Every structure is written in structure tokens, then in C-alpha cells.
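Weekly puzzle thread! Below is a chain. First person to post its structure in C-alpha cell form gets bragging rights.
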Amino acid sequence: MNQFTFTGKQKGFSIGLMIIGVLCLALTFMTAPEHHHARFWTNFLHNTMFFTGISFISMYLLAAHTLAYSGWHTVMKRLIESFTMFLPVGALFFLIIWFGTSNGWHHLYHWAEPGITNPMAENYDRIIAGKAPLLNQGMYILFTTLLILFWFAFALGARKLSTGSTTGEEGLANYKKTKVLMAIFMPMGAFTSAFFIWLAVMSIDAHWYSTMFAWYTSASWLVAAVALITLMLIYLNEKGYLTEAGQSHRHDLGKYVFAFSIFWTYVWFDQFMLIWYANVGEETIYFNTRLTKFKALFFLNLGINFILPFFVLMRNSTKWKVGSLAFIAAAVFFGHWLDFFMMVKPGIYESMHAHGGHAVTISEAGHAAHGSAMELGWHLPGLLELGTMLGFLGLFLFIAFTTLSKAPLMDSNDPYLEESLHHHAS
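Winning reply:
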């Protein structure tokens, strides 16, 4: 079947996940009002960053394949394109975060505190004042909301070229136009995404910096995106769709998960190494906080995202088996969601305590736990965090399935389609 039908059951499932997410966000807002509803806003930022990044990196993956004259991915090109359509939703969510920052609804970013760059103010911070040309409200909205819309313009252009051909000649002409579009997007996306990452996540811990953080974050997005593509392809295959993208294509996606999990670990280690190798002492506090005060989260992150996929996918036979591949893809997807949890939560938690406050966690049983050693929602995700993630996932899937239903699942006029149909992995 080359035409996907977004059934009522699938819509109901996606909407059900969204309802769970909305309820969890509402419960988080009502039950944890401390520090301007910090738990609510961190959950919102965490998931917005994670799913927007998957959408962006999917576009980047398409650009890389196109410019490398890749053919094997062509049968699942429309699946990857469907992921990029989440970008405008991500822009809307970052607009909400920016509006909240401007109006004092939350304190996600210490650099946004009034008077912090004023030498005459009591809360003046010399380090943040030195970074003020980048860390300010104008730059934030430019490199989050407006930048995401800029990326979406490229994604929309590529989508129109992909679906706009009716003959082989038009398909070849549109493919050449797509190459030009991707050649423009790829360097611009690589350069601008670093600013996006710096403003949206790295500036939470405003006193530190890392020369590898943009690479680290992008690698995490990439593994999560490939894992989700793998899960979606397996699901579509079971429903009788995209059967042309079969065992060999899934095997190569498994190779991607394996290879980029190793790359993620390499960048993960690099951030440690550069403290000594490049004498970047500013990185120390970031890792010291997470290693000493969030130790379970720190090592769980490494275990799921490196040790598990490395030892399971090292065997070539594992990548041929749908069950084991689906298990690892699901585990790694969750693992990199946990990775972004670790990027966001500790910095804000420490900032809350540094300013004389004390976080209060409402446990899943509804009891307040003051000053506990392991606080759900901060040191590890609680049910409210998991429910919020499911809500964002439901919205992401709803957009992806809607996009898939609007055009044939395969571009029959793509000049590389035959190569993809006859792809055999070994």
C-alpha cells in the first residue's frame, strides 16, 4: 500500500496521549507551585527542546543523504519528511517560553533576572554581564522561535519539491532543485543550530560553557530521531505499509543507531577530556554538579545510551531481528529523552537552591517531601514527567501521521527510487 490512511483508532491513540500530557502538565502546575512553577516549566522546556530537535535533525538527515547522493533511504524519505512538520509547533512552544521569560512567569534562565547585568544592582553578576550581548531577550526569540521558522521554510520547500512531481522528468528536475535547497540549508542549519542550543539549553547554566555542547546535543537528537524512524518503520511495516523498506533498510537503521550511539559517547567523553586537554576549567562545575548530586541520573544516562546499544547491536544478527531492534530503538529513544532531562533539570534545581529557596516535590502518592535526597521530577523523572513526554509524543505522532496521509508513502518519480527498492544490506 502506497497511500497511508490515518485511521480513527490511530487518531484516538494519539489524542489520548496528548490528553495524558495535558493532564500531567496541569497536575504539575497545580501540585508544584514552588519557584514560579519550576517543575512545570522545566518539563515544558525539556520536551519542547527534545521533540523540536528531533524534527530539525530529521531535516538535516535528509539534507545529508541528498548531498551524499544516497539512494537507500528513498523509500522511507516521506517518513523522515513527516518528522520535519513538527517545527512550527516547536516555534510556538518556544514563543510561549520566551513570553514567560519576558513576563516573569518562570525563572528558567538566570541571565533573564532583572538587574543582573546592572553594576549598581544587588544581584549584579559580572560573568553574565559579560555574556549579555548573546544572553538577552532579543537574541533568545531570534535564535529560538524565529530560527525554527527559518528551518521550517526549508523543510516546507523540500516537502513541496518531493510531492510536486507527476512525471520522471519532473522528479529529476525537482531532485536537482532539492539538492540546491539542501546545499544551502546544511551549512546554515549546522551553524545556526549551535546558537539555538546555546540559548535554549546551555544558557540554563549561564556561568559555564562547552565547546562541544552543540555537538553533544545534536548527536543526542540524531540517535533519538533514528530510533524513532526505526520504530515508525517497524510499525508501518506491520500495518502493511512501506513493505519495500524491509529487512535491509531496518538493518541499516540499526547500524545508524549503533554508530551514532558510539559517536554520542565520544562527544560525551570529549566534554570531560577538554577540561584538562584544552584547559577549559569552566566546564568543571557542570559535570561536578551532575556527577556528585545527580549520580543515579548520570550513570543511568550512560548505561542506556551507550552500554545497552553497544553490546546488543554489536552482533550483526541482532540488527536483522525486528524484536531486538525495536527494543533497542525504544530504549535509546527514552534514553536520549533522559539525556535532555539531565541537561535541563540539574542547572535549574541548583539555581533554585542557590537563591535561598528549597524545592518541594509532590510525590506520586500526593505527599510532600521536603529536602529528600532523591526528588522525583528533579533527580529522576516521575510519573508526571513521563506523562508529559507521552503527551508531546502523541502530538508529534499526530502531525507525522497526518503528513503521511497527505501524499503517497513513496515518491515514484524520485530518480533514486529503483536503487532504494533493490537495496540489500549485508
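Puzzle host: Confirmed. Bonus trivia for everyone else. The chain has a mean pLDDT of 93.
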